[in-house]
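Sample intake — Acetate kinase
Collected from: Kineothrix alysoides
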Amino acid sequence: MNILVINCGSSSLKYQLIDSENEKVLAKGLCERIGIDASSITHQPADREKWKKEVDMQDHTAAVKLVIETLTDKEIGVIHSLGEIDAVGHRIVHGGERFASSVIVTEEVQRQVEECNDLAPLHNPANLIGIRSCKEVMPDVPMVGVFDTAFHQTMPKKAYMYGLPYEYYENYKVRRYGFHGTSHDFVSRRAAEILGKDRKDLKIIVCHLGNGASVSAVKNGQSVDTSMGLTPLEGLIMGTRSGDIDPAIITFISKKENISAEEVIDICNKKSGVLGLSDGFSSDFRDLAEAAADGNESARTALETYAYRVGKYIGAYAAAMNGVDVIAFTAGAGENNAEVRKLIGQYIGFLGTNIDEEKNKLRGKEVILSDAGARVAAMVVPTDEELAIARETVRLVKGV
């Protein structure tokens, strides 16, 4: 089966076409500035040069049509016709409490996803636009929704409840949901496979360390806690997000700066994290590591504060599971930044990780960082959320 994986943003559309038989990416690309001047498509066929062109895209339906035209183009395409796309898998950010697993997308599913819009106002409406656009262009092709929040729906109530009046949970479902679930599921499963063990027999901590970052505790194959909360703002310090802060800071800054609470939240989302800590230097961990090595004190502070927060969450989740067998690093910084992993390693050695410095220098590859005698296996496991979405799509479409 050929599975088209769609990740739709408010003005963008990422796509991959994956042959599910050999799990090979046939092509991938990105439509940018949809509905805005100078919109463009970047297309990368497997084993061929990247191709980019400015094309007017008034809306997401036009973008989907352009993706199909590009995939079937005689020169740069990888299939002959729309009929070779067997199913479409959509990333959906928030499924609330309704969706604990992936689903075939129906009209009722779309309605229920729309009811979660206030939990993810920037993402869910865009995800729905992608679904509706694909249905318009490919009405007979089955569609599957894969939720970022679904994997974490196994968390016990003690892990997802906040210390707020219970009525806010009853009335508005204010609770921890967690995100990056597709990645946490994929990486924890793959980590067990690399070790030749059953995930159900392991306690795994997954550290998804990208520009957005989260940690999860996966016990016996199920998520039992995760660092992101009602929104992706809670938890770790991230590229531009503050992570955990005293909630009273919001009103404190609001009064001091004479700005609204919404404006402070916007600062917490877009101008904080390592970008803010480095005094606006960069949100890119590669830049920060280079600058810190050259003596930039604010960059060093940003990295050390970040690593400290990750280390604390790892310790907390080892306690939550009453032990840990595996710590897996993934996503941009987790897979590629040896300095970030080294700094985090300062706080987790007591668990018995015994991380080898030479192995830690490897980038972007599956590797067991710990030596053979380690009590806890520290690993790098590259994530592949698109492949995970494709696998879920095949499972549901085939009914297996």
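Post-analysis note: Residues 15 and 23 are 15 Å apart (CA to CA).
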